[in-house]
Design a protein that fits this description.
Layout: E1 2-4, H1 6-11, H2 43-51, E2 57-70, E3 75-81, E4 90-93, E5 97-104, E6 113-115, E7 138-145, E8 150-155, E9 168-173, E10 183-192, H3 200-207, E11 228-229, E12 238-239, E13 242-243, E14 248-249, E15 257-260, E16 270-272, E17 278-285, E18 292-296, E19 301-306, E20 309-316, E21 318-321, E22 326-332, E23 337-344, E24 350-356, E25 377-378, E26 398-405, E27 414-415, E28 425-428, E29 433-440, E30 446-450, E31 455-457, E32 463-464, E33 466-469, E34 474-480, E35 486-491, H4 494-499, E36 502-507
Parallel strand pairs: 1-7, 2-5, 4-9, 10-17, 16-24, 21-25, 26-29, 28-36
Antiparallel strand pairs: 2-3, 5-7, 6-8, 8-9, 10-15, 11-12, 13-14, 17-22, 18-21, 18-23, 19-20, 19-22, 23-24, 26-27, 29-34, 30-33, 30-35, 31-32, 31-34, 35-36
Length: about 500
């Protein structure tokens, strides 16, 4: 096995992006002059890392390998970290340094993206942008400071590998934790087909053929329907998955199973606690194509964080979580057995776990859907940031308009009418307040994710790194340009992103 460092890979052939003077493009994608961008290996990136005041180094080892994984009586051949789904959690304290050695025993190249962290650019894990891909048989060392406490996770940024089993939580603990609770449960939700009905690569190949004139994204406003396979010989494409919460079409892909912590609904994971315990639940959506509506039977949830950053606590019956998003909730547990149910929004199926505080109470049937799912469903418009993380008032110095374009008919997803091109880079400068204006020209929803930063929603101000943009709507988000390098913006529907709904931001040299 080849032992390769981050620096060796970056120096050995990342010339297409690594700090060279590139052809930049204006906000509409038209080539402009050629400003020099700050690359992942640069004095500015090193200085930004030192400003985080790196603390103690914590070492971790990850092995990406083909594995037979037990999903709860169902065995699937997939790709996973350390032979388990989810992978082994990484847990550090804010300010500590994560040093993670990835050994790639897969038959293909891979990488790791540390989702949601404002980390150093050369550790962001995007092949061709911040690093070269980690080849089969090679090892690669990621090293970065984890600056902000919160709920994060990690996954590949290579092809459709996210929709296999390559994901795990990354929890950054607050050394001055303000919340009071007795116990904690980390919950990762996922939609699953790998090794059961096909592979993610097969799904992408099928979707890429499009649906001709039958654009199932045009069902905005319809009541939810029972989803079904699309007509003809389609194996993976889904029709009739509709959701009023998502503005119409809920998703593209037909999944046979939905998982909670790697378990199917009929064989759920059980979390045991005492009646009256105050439980913190960290919820992560690692799905490829599915939003989840989450509720705990017999309880209301107090939402305390979204995407790692605190909000003013608010109670709700249920919450909607798109791919890549995270929510932290607190709940005081009653006496009994209570299902935590994640409804695959618009797809008429669930992921499920159990919380047990009684030794004698029988577990409810696996098809139980808590009434809370039909109650008050929290949306971002109701949330307000905690004062400590609210962005200081300031008008944007620069606005970048990102039109989300494409359709199911041609499966031609893009940004500003163009598929991803690494030479199209929106230029920003350190110190600016930058506004990203997502304008959804499509009839589908898109969870848009910004690497390396946490933005504030212009309406309400909550801090996030991934946010749902509904069909035919505009979402403005603001961030301070304080983390130099080259950073990706993309739809976290893995099939939309891989089809072209991705672009880059680049800090210009000053």
């Amino acid at each position: 096995m080849h032992n390769i460092s981050r620096r060796t890979l970056l120096r050995g052939g990342l010339g297409l992006l690594g700090g060279a003077a590139l052809t930049a493009c204006a906000q509409n994608g038209t080539p402009t002059s050629s400003p020099a961008f700050i690359g992942p290996i640069s004095d500015q990136v090193r200085a930004a890392e030192q400003a985080r005041r790196p603390g103690a180094v914590r070492d971790f080892t990850l092995v990406a390998a083909e594995s037979d994984v037990d999903l709860g009586g169902l065995t699937a051949r997939t790709w996973a970290y350390d032979g388990r789904i989810p992978g082994t959690p990484i847990r550090v304290r804010a300010g500590e340094v994560v040093r993670a050695r990835l050994s790639n025993t897969l038959p293909k190249d891979t990488s790791i993206h540390w989702h949601g962290l404002a980390l150093r650019n050369d550790a962001d894990g995007v092949p061709g942008v911040t690093q070269q891909p980690v080849a089969s048989g090679a090892t690669y060392v990621y090293e970065f400071t984890a600056p902000d406490p919160g709920t994060y996770w990690f996954h590949p940024h290579t092809g459709t590998q996210l929709d296999r089993g390559l994901y795990a939580p990354l929890i950054v603990e607050d050394p001055n934790e303000p919340l009071t609770y007795d116990d904690e449960w980390v919950v990762i939700l996922d939609d699953w087909l790998d090794g059961v009905t096909g592979t993610p690569d097969e799904v992408l190949a099928e979707l890429s053929g499009g649906m001709g004139g039958m654009d199932h994204g045009g069902m905005t406003g319809m009541a939810e329907m029972t989803p079904s396979p699309s007509p003809g010989t389609s194996k993976h494409m889904l029709m009739g998955a509709t959701s009023l919460l998502l503005g119409g079409d809920a998703g593209d892909v037909r999944y046979p199973h939905f998982l909670l912590n790697g378990r199917i609904a009929t064989a759920p994971e059980t979390f045991r606690a005492k009646p009256g315990a105050r439980l913190r639940i960290r919820i992560i959506n690692a799905g490829g194509d599915t939003a989840f509506r989450v509720a705990l039977a017999g309880h209301r949830l107090t939402v305390t964080h979204t995407d790692g950053f605190p909000v003013q606590p608010i109670e709700t019956d249920a919450l909607l979580i798109g791919m890549g998003e995270r929510y932290d909730v607190l709940v005081t547990l009653k006496d009994g057995v209570f299902p935590l149910v994640a409804l695959a929004e618009g797809k008429n199926a669930v992921a499920r776990g159990l919380i047990r505080t009684s030794r004698t109470t029988a577990a409810p049937k696996s098809d139980l859907r808590p009434r809370e799912l039909e109650g008050d469903v929290l949306r971002n418009a109701k949330l307000r940031p905690a004062e400590a993380v609210r962005l200081a008032p300031k008008n944007p110095d620069r606005t970048i308009k990102l039109e989300l374009t494409g359709s199911m008919a041609a499966y031609d997803w893009g940004i500003n009418g163009k598929k991803y091109n690494p030479k199209i880079i929106s230029a920003i400068r350190s110190g600016e307040r930058v506004r990203l204006s997502f304008v959804n020209r499509t009839t589908m929803w898109h969870p848009m994710h910004l690497h390396g930063h946490t933005f504030a929603l212009a309406e309400g101000g909550i801090r996030k790194d991934t946010a749902i943009v509904l069909p035919s709507t505009r979402l403005d988000v603001d961030f301070d340009a304080d983390n130099p390098g080259l950073w990706m913006i993309h739809c976290h529907n893995i099939y939309h992103g891989e089809s072209g709904m991705m672009t880059l931001l680049g800090y210009q040299q000053t």
